[in-house]
Write a structure and sequence with these properties.
alpha/beta; 361 residues; EC 1.3.1.20
């Protein structure tokens, strides 16, 4: 039986997500409706993707009784209201990253999901790529030994894109790019909360963070360094150094197709798209969609590969990072009683030689 999808927002990422769904068996996934704030945009989207119904409001989409789960592809500041609307209507939600603007909003969405007994997952799509699954296996089986150091960088000149540069649109390097670096770190340390966080950087004239360096210290003196920027091109790679070996994702880390383990490189293929895409490797969105289907078939309300605790941890780290960017940059220690553990999986990001990070979803 097919999972019946509703698409919230008729923007670029929603287009790519719908194209990715078409790479999966139609008996498993069906898009039955799309909604946008402008009916004409929804109708054009529906015609392009052969979707039966188009709505000019999110409320109409929430009222549709034939939808199992809604993909929320709006910009960050609308995730809370949209997700709440759909879950209160009894629908599951796959919400684009970041799940919300801060930890408080993530907790609100989580509480709404549990109150309505519906599925909720943050669409950190990278966690479901074959490369990510293999990294998860290597770490969980101890093949790299103890993780000692992690480094992740992501940056490109993107301030010409309003949603990245404007505060009211949820802009800033941390929320849009840093989340990938940080969840790479969280994966490497098995969901353990850092004992301390120290952030420093430079803000844009608009008030959002433009370039940020984040240092995280974990138990047993293990460290991680993340750098994210929307003002400059960075090395855009990441590495996990363990006591028995090294894992590296050298390119396209947010949508990885290459993995290097102790110097040995392996390539992974992605599904072929049926239409042109807005972002690099977007057919990889099919992996998170299939994860949603598998969870629904099993009656699960969250994914073990991207738990609601994982989302809360990411939000808490990003909140503290941005707090320090607006303050004096002091180290923040997280109380022992508040430390929690997430699940193993991976995120990466780096462009290949022919793509800029404007290809990021």
């Amino acid at each position: 039986m097919a999972v019946r999808w509703g698409i919230c927002s008729a923007g670029k990422i929603s287009h790519d997500f719908t194209v990715a769904l078409r790479t999966l068996p139609p008996g498993d996934h069906q898009v039955v409706a799309v909604a946008a704030r402008d009916l004409q945009h929804a109708q054009e989207f529906a015609q392009k993707h052969s979707i039966p119904r188009a709505y000019g409001s999110y409320q109409e989409l929430s009222d549709d009784p034939e939808i199992d789960v809604v993909y929320v592809g709006t910009i960050h500041p609308y995730h809370l209201t949209a997700g709440t609307l759909f879950m209160n209507a009894g629908k599951g939600v796959l919400c684009e990253k970041p799940m919300a603007m801060n930890l408080r909003e993530v907790q609100e969405l989580t509480a709404t999901a549990r109150k309505n007994n519906v599925f909720l997952m943050e669409a950190v799509w990278t966690r479901f790529f074959p490369v990510s699954l293999e990294v998860s296996r290597l770490l969980s089986q101890g093949e790299m030994g103890e993780v000692l150091m992690v480094r992740a960088d992501l940056g490109a000149p993107l301030i010409h894109i309003p949603r990245l540069a404007e505060r009211d649109l949820g802009g800033g390097a941390v929320l849009d790019l840093g989340i990938y670096c940080l969840q790479f770190v969280c994966l490497a340390f098995g969901g353990e909360k850092p004992e301390s966080i120290q952030a420093n950087g430079v803000k844009l004239d608009t008030g959002v963070d433009g370039t940020v360096v984040i240092s995280l210290r974990f138990s047993r003196n293990r460290m991680a360094i993340c750098t994210c920027s929307i003002t400059m091109e960075l090395t855009n790679d990441a590495m996990i150094v363990g006591s028995k070996g090294t894992i590296r994702v050298p390119s396209n880390m947010w949508c990885p197709t290459t993995l290097v383990v102790n110097g040995k490189e392996t390539q992974y293929c992605l599904p072929e798209p049926g239409q042109s895409l807005n972002f690099l490797h977007s057919t990889g969105l099919s992996y998170e969609a299939e994860e949603v289907r598998q969870c629904l078939l099993k009656g699960l309300k969250e994914s073990a590969r991207m738990t609601l605790s994982d989302s809360a941890l990411l939000a808490e780290i990003m909140d503290e990072t941005r707090r320090q960017m607006n303050g004096n940059g002091s180290v923040h220690s997280i109380p022992e009683e508040n430390r929690c553990w997430g699940t193993w999986l991976l995120c990466f990001l780096q462009p290949d030689d022919n793509h800029s990070l404007s290809c990021l979803s």
